[in-house]
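Instructor's aside before we start: the two examples that follow are unrelated to each other. I chose them only because their records fit on one page, so don't look for a connection. First example below.
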Amino acid sequence: MGRRIVFLPRATNYCSQWFRKKTSLATMFLKGLISQGWQALMRDRLRSTLTMLGIVWGLASVVLLLAYGQGLGGSVLHAFLNMGSNVIVLWPGQTSMQAGGQRAGKTVNYEYEDVEAIRDEVPIVRAVSAEIDRDFGFKLGTRVVTIQVRGVEMPYGQMRKLTLEDGRYFDEGDFADHRRVVILGYEAAKKIFQGAPGVGQHVSIGGLDFEVIGTMRNKIQDSMYNGPDNDNGFIPFGLMRDLKNLRDPDEIIFQPTAAELNKQSLAAVA
């Protein structure tokens, strides 16, 4: 008996033909969809143009508003933190209750020993500075400008973010030798020198000759006390005590070692 041989088409050829057919149908459908869309757009060009402009304007408005919101939030936070990062300021106050035979409401002022005690006895405080604030007349030539001056100690600049645009910050010798040196805020320098460079110049403060050793960078600041830093001058604390015949600070500024220790450090200082 003879054998019958039957040849079957290969599966691969069948799959290839099926795939090409499906691809062709998809291409035809896509072309038809594009053609119909284009015809619809061309049927009323003005309406189509206005619709597309509305979509583009809506997307652009959303993007701009989001960018504006993020930028404004960052600027507000930056201005708020420019007074100092993780800084606590202590002001004198009054007793709320009778204590030690004294009546309630008695004024409590700080002594310099309080600053030394915080520095020596509170380990969770990274830095501390005494501060005295007074107004002085700055005389340059025949011009006299009244500027508030802050007498501060060495750690003050780091705590309160006194970033200089020109010159230098105080060094240990300025405090030890009671040198007559001053750092000027951005606006204070403009008032005194009217836009001219101030570093290295000499100015009369309270009738004494001072050298300007630094001028601050323009500081955007919306949290402050006793006015913005831009409008102030800064001199060594010991020199301020000599000029005004004072001994004790108006305020005490300190910085805990970590933000989560703020309450604990305030309790330890109090």
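Example two begins here.
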Amino acid sequence: MKEGVIKFSYDWKKKPLPASLDIGELVKYRNKLRDCTGGIKETKRQMEHGFSLTKKILSQSPQRSQRRDFLGLEIKKGNSELPVYGLIGADENGVGYGNISVRYKSSGQFIISASDTGKIKRAGKYHFTVVNSVDIKKNFVSCAGMKVASSESMTHDIIYNLSSGIKCVIHVHNLRLWKKFLNKVPTTSKTISYGTTEMANDIRRLWVKSGLKEKRILVMAGHEGGLVVFGESIEEAYSLIMEYFNE
């Protein structure tokens, strides 16, 4: 199944987040993850890919005003939205990946980056959604925001339910890290897909049997490139993924 597809049923109320809600820190760290590309070799490959894609696009577009990149966005000088393979980003098909959330108010609520926002270069408040409740057994999510909640909302929810001390969850993609830590840290079954009730239940299993509580990182074996970290604050969760990233 295509990445980024929402696999749960949902009740979505399309409305802006409250004006009084300050998520500046959440937005800041999301954008830092978007900017974080992998290693020298990986960065070189990405630059080469972006350059070749640019030439292809421009050669196919006779008029500058009509030129569009692979995401369908107009190419503007100094503001191209070509592929950026950050820890949060979009693939060569324009499908976004990665998400970040923080606990909000009651234990059943959290604020998460919305679905299909990985491709956004600089996210803002508009690109986040409040998840009001999740029913894992019924595969159902209730949310409110200008966009539907991330396809990984059920994964974030189960992690918050594991401990009241968890205040932030970050899901990233990086093939180098994924290969390095696959089965070296708590790892979900390779037969389980992302964003499903099965994934939520398997994460609960890892918490009980695989030291997830102490390590605070897991690899999704059935979701190539996918890793999840969590912490008692945004800064702690971000520092943890960067610690692994820089090893």
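The domain at 9-37+93-245 is CATH 3.40.225.10 (L-fuculose-1-phosphate Aldolase).
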